Amino acid sequence: MLTRIPKGTRDVLPADSPRLQAVEALMREKARLAGYAEIRTPVFEHTELFSRAAGETSDVVRKEMYTFLDKAGRSVTLKPESTAGVVRAFIESGLYAQALPLKVYYLSAPHFRYEAPQAGRLREHHQFGMECFGAQQASADAELILTAMDVLTGMGLKGVALRINSIGCPNCRPAYQEKLREYLRARTDKLCKDCEERTETNPLRVLDCKNPACQSELADAPRMLHHLCDECRQHFDELQGFLNAAEVPYLVDTGIVRGLDYYTKTVFELTTDTPTGTLTACGGGRYDRLVEMIGGPAIPAVGFGMGIERVLMLLDQLSPEDQRLRVPGNAPDVFVASLHKGLAVRAFELTLAFRAAGLNADMDHAARSLKAQFKYADKLGAAYVAILGEDEVTKGVVKLRNMTTKEEWEVTLASAPEALKALIHKPVEEE
Fold first, then answer.
1. What domains are defined for the chain?
2. Is the pLDDT of residue 292 over 50?
């Protein structure tokens, strides 16, 4: 139906916008403080980019992508995640030739995945993410993790917990995968259908299965953390050293593998407490070979993604006293009310003068009576009403009324904007 929103999408209505803007402002500020600059990439890319980056066997590529042929018969895909597109831009624009590391972030980027909609996860969802190119030290991993935590705690979210793991690299992972595959083959009849297939194509993904039957079979499964090469082990130890130095508590969780094939070494998740249990609010890790896989030079990288809809859902569960966001109000500073339609041009001019002075100003656009204009101004939450009548216009003045105290002041039309600003910023007198 034309008047029904597609399944798995949502509208952001005017009443919801101020809080979303406050969330975005906090994310921008935390990214800026860490030295990250914004990047924006197209909402669709060539399909091959995602299949090469995420891996042909990943659930994203096999089941969840919105892929179609354009009018020239080329296969394009609405982006299911942003890292691949950011890497493509990094290579195509020659950003790797700049001084490294290069730090970028994206904000409210739309992503599309065809999956069953659930709380905080929609078919069209938006993400905040940060990517750091050219930094091989574990300090870059720790910096990103701490910035993500600052975003979540800065909103007032409670019980934010960090879980980390290392999934090795192409040097040590193949031998481990074969050990894990042997373990899983002995239990194939007890695994879900998806995990039966993953056993042969991508056994690490079995560790991430949420099926209770599969989880019960993984209690004694070999873990990558016990099969790391010296380089990966040293990197993971260094990451823990940086986190310890920042006095950030964390849990080593060998079950974290993430859902995309490009991850190497560090993987992490940030979770938070909710009335219905623990929920993942952010995830990411290192992808040291992705730039090279897509066609660029061998440059290490690390990043994370944070679902904005999920963050908003978590904020809904906070009590008012726990909210830390500074949500801007949208009520007018002043509403210009005129006695009759003949004064509409004067009201329009005064409204523009208020706005030029940096005030949120509005006026009547529906030919209401003066009484109705006052009611409308009250519904808008206007702090002041500027009243224009024939006598006021003749004398070159306007009345300013405080909608809370009902006090009135008569000022000249020319001085009205500055007079109102002075009233708005007048300190409250002590009793």
1. 17-172+228-322 (3.30.930.10), 334-424 (3.40.50.800)
2. yes
Q: Convert the pLDDT of each residue in 53-90 to its tens digit.
A: 877 667 788 889 999 999 999 999 999 999 999 999 99
**d(C-alpha 385, C-alpha 375), whole Å:** 11
This model's pTM is above 0.85: yes
Residue 107 has pLDDT above 90, yes or no: yes
Residue bearing tokens 């019980």: 159
pLDDT single digits (tens) 295-337: 999 999 999 999 999 999 999 888 877 888 888 888 999 999 9
